[in-house]
Amino acid sequence: MSNTSHEVAQGPHHTSGAASTALSAHSIDKKFPGVLANDSVDFDVRAGEVHTLLGENGAGKSTLAAVLCGLYQPDAGYLMRNGKRINLSSPRAGLQHGIAMVHQHFRLVERFTVSENVILGSRDLPFRLNRRELNENVAAVAESYGLPIDPDATVGDLSVGQRQRVEIVKALYQGAEILLLDEPTAVLVPSEVEKLFENVHAMTAAGKSIVFISHKLGEVVEISDRVTVLRNGRVTGHVSGRGTADTRELARLMVGRDIELNAQRATHATGHEVLQIRNLSLSINDVSVLTDISFSVHAGEMVGIAGVAGNGQRELADTIAGLISPTTGSVTISGSMTTDCGPIQAREVGLAYVPEDRLGMGLVPSMSILDNLLLTRDRQIVVDRVSVRPEAARLIEQFEIKANGPDHLARKLSGGNAQKVLLARELSGGRGATKLLVVCSPTRGLDVGAIETVRRLLNDARSAGQAILLISEDLDEVLSLSDRVLVLYRGAVVHETPGETAQLSKVGAAMAGLASEGRS
Amino acid sequence: MQIPFRVVFEQRGETPRRLSLLVPFASVVAALFFGALFLLATGYSPIDTYTNMFRDGFASFNGITDTLALSTVLICTGISAAFAFQMNLYNIGGEGQLYLGLIGGAWAGIALGDHLPTLLMVPVVLLCGAIAGAAWIFVPAFVRSRLGTSEIVSTLLLTYIGASLIKHVIYTPGSFFRNPNTSFPQGRMVADSASLDSFGSSRLYPTFFVALIIAGALYWVVKRTEFGYRINVISDSPRAAHYAGINARRTTMWVMLISGSLSGLAGAMLIVGPYGKIEPSIITLGYGYAGIVVAALARNNLGLIIVSGILFSGLRVGGNNLQVTTDTPIHIGVMLQGAILLFALGGEAFRRYHIHIVRVHEATSQKASA
Amino acid sequence: MSADAIAIATTLILAALGALFTERAGVLNLGIEGILLTSAISSFLAADASGSVWLGLIVGTVIGAVLASIHALLSVVFRANQIVAGLALVIFGTGLANFLGKPAEGKTVTTVINPLSFGPLSDIPVIGPIVFGQDIITYLAIALAIVASRYLFSTRPGLELRATGDDPATVDAQGLSVARIRIRYTMIGGALVGLGGSWLMLAQSAGWHQAATTNGLGWIALALVVFAGWRPMRIIFGAVLFGFTLQLPFTLQAEQITFIPSAFLEMLPYLATLIALIALSRPGSRNLLGAPRALGTPFVRDER
Q1: Domains of chain A by residue range
Q2: What is the DSSP letter of C112?
Q3: Do residue C175 and residue A111 have CB atoms under 8 angstroms apart?
Q4: A343 contacts B225? CB cut-off 8 A
Q5: How many CB pairs below 8 Å do chains A and B form together?
Q6: Which of A108-117, C134-143, C205-214 is least confident?
Q7: pTM beyond cutoff 0.90
Q8: Minimal-distance CA residue of chain A relative to C166
Q9: Which of B349, B364, B358 is nearest to B26 (CA)?
Q10: Among A251, A495, B103, B170, which is 20 to 30 Å from A24 by CA?
């Protein structure tokens, strides 16, 4: 167990050559079938520094991070730690060198308590575990970095922000000097992000090195001492100096061209009410998941639902789509009550649904594109694949889906292409012409090209008169695309504002439950 | 202990055709090879054993007809297993469902046999056997779809209960199913109208073709019909099934019931075919479990089961005769059957994954493909 | 309870503990029935040939571990379907056991382990013989259950074991070898089953009856793990209960209650197990409370 106290190393504001390089990577190559994820990448981080790896999805930053912590082994190149060459054959080896990664998808055993999770894998543990003593030790480490946690709580009961804290404590407990944080703010509310940044400062003040991996320009600029930008596996630039980095410059390095940072909100006219939600409430296992929600969406209008993941978004989408029956309240689509009728009825009156879980729920991985197109349609006793084939081919072309034809298996599609297949299917109507499109996290995990395409498709659909309900954890996306924004917190709508005039501070506060130091 | 090698399993996008055919073949060869070593070690001749097995299974008139006759049953129990397994429903109780099919078919044959002509009687017997099999799986199917109870344990327990039932109906004096004319406990013969003749002097019955037709029909159902579509969706992604409004619970029940009825049908086929009555020795033959092996070897592909069913039957028939023609005990045959399945399972890994051995070295890692 | 019923209960405890360790690591070993049979006959042959019951027990235990290692190899290294692999093992094990058992047909065990003597304590009326008059293996089985409980919940390796069955990805991320843990506990589980199988053979006065020797005990052991919610102490409870259902036919006979057909009595243990299993199920997916979440799923590190 490492509870060492460090001499306070050079603070982050003294970025001169005097701070020692804690970890460096030289000419790293990493290949996967069909793609060169890292191409001759150099990177280094100093003690007491926050160095951000910036890049869009698919740029290779997660791969590089995995190489830095020992999860992957590079195909070429090498790593150096404190001036000595090292070879990390596994994350364990990385940990032995004091390098730890906090993953985007937490590696925590939900059934275990916080301290059980923190100590799991720790080599210095005695054979017999003294729970009380361990709890004390874990709490002490957490306190020293300003990360209060309850060692006896069951991880499964914790919020996302708390779980992240557990992950950080785990890394520190196991002696990490260099922490790699993979997209840590993706799951946090604006006030939790502030807290995280405070913790990061505390750690760098103690001499730790932090590698921040992100695609969010705004935050990156605020937190980093240095920024290295990756694009298509290559380093395209370094930027240093806190607060002096130019977001346009960074965006250009990220994408290789000037991009429109604010997506256009298309001009349009709104029509009749397509979706009407009245007093919708849902309880699961006596826990209130949705509380008295009412709103409507009109033809040609895009309503965005903002909120941190886990506040009822998925349940709301599923309820509207007819997958869940609400406890009370009603769902009306195109004038017909679809509340307890199931997804098939909902689709017959014009519902289309692109779920968050693309390949596990929206598409059947082992089936072809053609069979997936049939998923939401009326099928005869003997399935007629012949007459759908030409339409499938047409959609592939129209939506520019990269595939070998209608028989291409869904699981072999890239994230962006899978999303295009889903949109193609949902927009082209199934059991009835599409009137309402419910879409969740449409651009998560996609590269910039695909993101632009998807947003364009959504805008086009809106211009064509569709009613769109956009549910996304990407606040920027919701604010920039939607005509109206509703904020969901703990299953209730707590704030409503037109998209154009939305104020980030108010929206952020609402997302956190109106408490200024948002602790859920 | 630091091993300087790391074995990497990389999931294949798709398996080359060549490999798909090579792997099962190689598995059988590997199993036979180790079997030969075992035989040598225990003092038996592998050459004698294997040639006799092959001859008795595949190379003589009696051998071929006996093989095909056995495959009638094993194809049925095989598709019974495969149909359920493809949906990750592990109906291990085909054995018990077969016993019940025997009882159901015998009941029809005894009770109704004198009232109906053969043309009607045989289908009625088969139907009754199928229904009995379905009834025997009903409870496990129901609790599985409603409560999530493990069908593995429930169907298995019912097999043991079914075995007791068979013994009960034969050994109880005065039982409906017991031959009233002998003091030695024996099954009661069904009426003539419920009994078919075999082909010529062989032990092969027309029910063989029934098995083939059913296998083919179910293959078509899974590939081309709505029911089959639903099965495919649910087995790959229950969430997608929910999303599409497919009632997984109902489909699960139907799949299980069909699976049970197929094993029941196998039992009824024994009634109209070779048995003509309930044979208590059925509980030692393990036809239901053999069906699971047949299904596993065919990778749950309903078309391939015909092939694996016939091949596996040949192996059993050849093995059964061993004790007569050589002094190799019959159990070698059973061991070989288990060994072939074990090797086939191992071989699957080569089909599904691309395996390399990576040497973990100093600076960079070098790959040496295996 | 009769001596036979206690011996069976002891075997159940051991086999169920073996299954519990294996399943806690995330591996489903349905081959237990085959392992029981093979270790039973091996221990018998070894004891018969050497005259030493202890040697028989050791041989049976080792055989159990060896057979389980085949399952471990297939399930962990080759990522085969664990259910089919287990069944293959049962078939193979049954064949092997019958093959080895040919020379032993009809023979009975001639050497017996004497019950431990606790002196005057076993003379206490009623509970004396029950609590203090058992065989050492029975005490060992109970002791093992207690040790297993402490191991699982209060030691570091126990923590790692529980984590492996619940969330192997996390264990892997910590740099521990999921494969090594799973193989280790599958083999330990197999050894325990082997010990149980040996005891079944050597403790009873009955001889070798091929598959009827175990009569589905392996499957009951698997069900027992489910009832016990994968907790060792509860296994003792379940095994004792099962022992009672086995005892019932003899008790009824002694009390002259003969109207219940023997076939029904024969199926009673299985029926009771089935009913109990269903009664303990709750609606919802994967109702098995306390089941290791990754049970039966091969672990493949998500390389992209």
Answers
A1: 21-98+177-254, 109-175, 273-358+433-511
A2: -
A3: no
A4: no
A5: 78
A6: C205-214
A7: no
A8: A109
A9: B349
A10: A251
